[in-house]
Amino acid sequence: MKERAKQLFLGVGAALLLAAAAFVWLYFTRIQSIASIRRITDYADGYNLYCMDVKYDYDLEAVIAYGITDDQSTVDAILQEALPLLPVSIEVPDFGCSAFCISDRNGDVLMGRNYDFRNDTSAMLVHCNPKGGYRSVAFAALDNVGANTPDASLKAKLTALTAPFICLDGMNEKGVSIAVLTLDSEPTAQNTGRPVIATTLAIRLVLDHAATTKEAVALLSDYDMFASAGRDYHFYITDAAGDG
């Protein structure tokens, strides 16, 4: 009896050690990402600009393949990829924005945008370098995930790991920029049998894989679009040649 109890104890201990090792392996680069979070500004109102280098190898295709049908499934897919095994939930907020494109005196193409949000928000400048994709910088509005001070607590730091999938605009190394803006129309919910992609996931798709505006349009045409948060949207896309 004692021998069986000993074997059971050793078996449980070994299983726990394996589980712990798997968790550490899974979160090692996520912890590196968290460690890279730094505050760039110091505004009196408490809403600031932060920066994070995404070190973990996220899988955008796995997020899309999760099976997106509504806001909750979109959030669940993002959390499963960014924070696997952790019981985290996020509510999807409302938002709206503006964008523009100009050419400067040197002929360089510039794109700018602002957030017309109901609530004040901090922002995260997200640096991504995905395998098989283009390097990019993009902005995530942190109020959208309830993490306006991402360096204030472990919960906020972990929540910030969703940043690659919640960016509202950005530019990649090929000069393709994209921003999402709201429309006063019925939310898009295409259903043609193609894989379903949600609003901010479309931004990550374009930043990771489009070298021109034409490539961005072609990429998006391979998916059915689901408009998040009960709003409709359009995407403002430009490239290094000024094609928009």
Can you walk me through this structure?
By secondary structure, the protein is α+β, with helices and mostly antiparallel strands. It has one domain (2-238). It has helices at residues 2-35, 60-65, 71-82, 154-159, 199-209, 213-220, and strands at 38-39, 49-53, 97-103, 109-115, 123-128, 136-141, 167-172, 177-183, 196-198, 224-226, 232-238. The protein has a seven-stranded mixed beta sheet with strand order 1-2-5-6-7-8-11. A two-stranded antiparallel ribbon has the order 3-4. Strands 9-10 form a two-stranded parallel ribbon. Helix 5 (199-209) packs across helix 6. The chain is globular. Mean pLDDT is 86; it is low at 9-16.
Summarize the structure.
This protein has about 240 residues and is of the alpha+beta class.
Task: Please supply descriptive tags for the structure shown above.
244 residues; alpha+beta; seven-stranded mixed beta sheet; two-stranded antiparallel ribbon; 6 helices; 11 strands; 32% helix
Summarize the SSE layout with pairings.
Layout: H1 2-35, E1 38-39, E2 49-53, H2 60-65, H3 71-82, E3 97-103, E4 109-115, E5 123-128, E6 136-141, H4 154-159, E7 167-172, E8 177-183, E9 196-198, H5 199-209, H6 213-220, E10 224-226, E11 232-238
Parallel strand pairs: 2-5, 9-10
Antiparallel strand pairs: 1-2, 3-4, 5-6, 6-7, 7-8, 8-11
Helix pairs in contact: 5-6
Total E-strand runs: 11
Structurally, the number of domains stands at 1
Classification by helices and strands:
alpha+beta
Helix content: 25-40%
Spell out the helices and strands N to C. Answer: HEEHHEEEEHEEEHHEE
The unreliable regions are 9-16
The share of residues in extended strands comes to 15-25%
> What would you report as the Rg, rounded to the nearest angstrom?
20 Å
Distance between the termini: 75 Å
What is the strand arrangement across the widest sheet?
1-2-5-6-7-8-11
Q: In one word, what is the shape?
A: globular
**Sheet with most strands:** 7 strands, mixed
Count of helix runs: 6
Mean pLDDT: 86
